[in-house]
């Protein structure tokens, strides 16, 4: 098996930096939801490692669920059209929802997902994102809880993928252009 690191141009965020960002967001969530029991909705598959890390550091009761939405459709940029492949399995009406995202770049997927959840009459909806890529933003939207600011580059690792590969790396790095071009 080939070494994944040889496909990475440079490591942007180490595992230690990701853990520290997760702890910081967890503390903010604890403060903001201290008298509530929010529903953490993990966007599959990319946000799964972040959700697992984040949950370990939240010291209030939370409920979890999953949604699988796609806007990349095999490419390297969001198309803006979301497809719900797997919906949440619980009734979220009246609940405080925190969308757990791996990355917010154009903002299109997050905006569409928030609109979808608001139609379900949730009490509130916020977003915790491991990475925020404001340079790529097309839609005027921002995550409520931001782990790390990401430059405008094609990144993989810690859940982020290219053609379902690289999700298992413990860091986030820039993928070499020759891999995806």
TrEMBL record:
Pfam families: Pribosyltran
EC number: 2.4.2.8
UniProt-annotated location(s): Cytoplasm
UniProtKB keywords: Cytoplasm, Glycosyltransferase, Magnesium, Metal-binding, Nucleotide-binding, Purine salvage, Transferase
Pathway where it operates: Purine metabolism; IMP biosynthesis via salvage pathway; IMP from hypoxanthine: step 1/1; Purine metabolism; GMP biosynthesis via salvage pathway; GMP from guanine: step 1/1
Reported cofactor(s): Mg(2+)
Domain called Phosphoribosyltransferase: residue spans: 13-162
Catalytic reactions on record: GMP + diphosphate = guanine + 5-phospho-alpha-D-ribose 1-diphosphate; IMP + diphosphate = hypoxanthine + 5-phospho-alpha-D-ribose 1-diphosphate
GO MF annotations in UniProt: glycosyltransferase activity
Enzyme class: transferase
Cited InterPro entries: HGPRT (IPR050408), Hxn_phspho_trans (IPR005904), PRTase-like (IPR029057), PRTase_dom (IPR000836)
Function, in words: Purine salvage pathway enzyme that catalyzes the transfer of the ribosyl-5-phosphate group from 5-phospho-alpha-D-ribose 1-diphosphate (PRPP) to the N9 position of the 6-oxopurines hypoxanthine and guanine to form the corresponding ribonucleotides IMP (inosine 5'-monophosphate) and GMP (guanosine 5'-monophosphate), with the release of PPi.
Family (UniProt): Belongs to the purine/pyrimidine phosphoribosyltransferase family.
PANTHER family listed in its UniProt record: HYPOXANTHINE PHOSPHORIBOSYLTRANSFERASE, HYPOXANTHINE-GUANINE PHOSPHORIBOSYLTRANSFERASE
Designated name of the protein: Hypoxanthine phosphoribosyltransferase
Organism the protein comes from: Gemella sanguinis
């Amino acid at each position: 098996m080939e070494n994944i690191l040889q496909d990475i141009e440079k490591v942007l965020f180490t595992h230690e930096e990701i853990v520290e960002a997760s702890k910081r967001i967890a503390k903010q969530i604890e403060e903001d939801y201290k008298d509530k029991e929010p529903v953490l909705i993990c966007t599959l598959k990319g946000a799964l490692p972040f959700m697992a890390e984040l949950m370990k550091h939240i010291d209030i009761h939370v409920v979890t669920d999953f949604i699988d939405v796609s806007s990349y459709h095999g490419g390297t940029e969001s198309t803006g059209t979301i497809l719900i492949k797997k919906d949440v399995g619980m009734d979220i009406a009246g609940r405080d929802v925190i969308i757990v995202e791996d990355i917010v770049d154009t903002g299109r997927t997050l905006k569409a997902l928030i609109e979808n959840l608001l139609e379900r009459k949730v009490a509130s909806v916020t977003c915790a994102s491991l990475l925020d890529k404001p340079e790529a933003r097309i839609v005027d939207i921002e995550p409520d809880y931001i782990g790390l600011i990401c430059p405008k580059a094609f990144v993989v690792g810690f859940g982020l993928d290219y053609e379902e590969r690289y999700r298992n790396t413990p860091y986030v790095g820039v993928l070499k252009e020759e891999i995806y071009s």
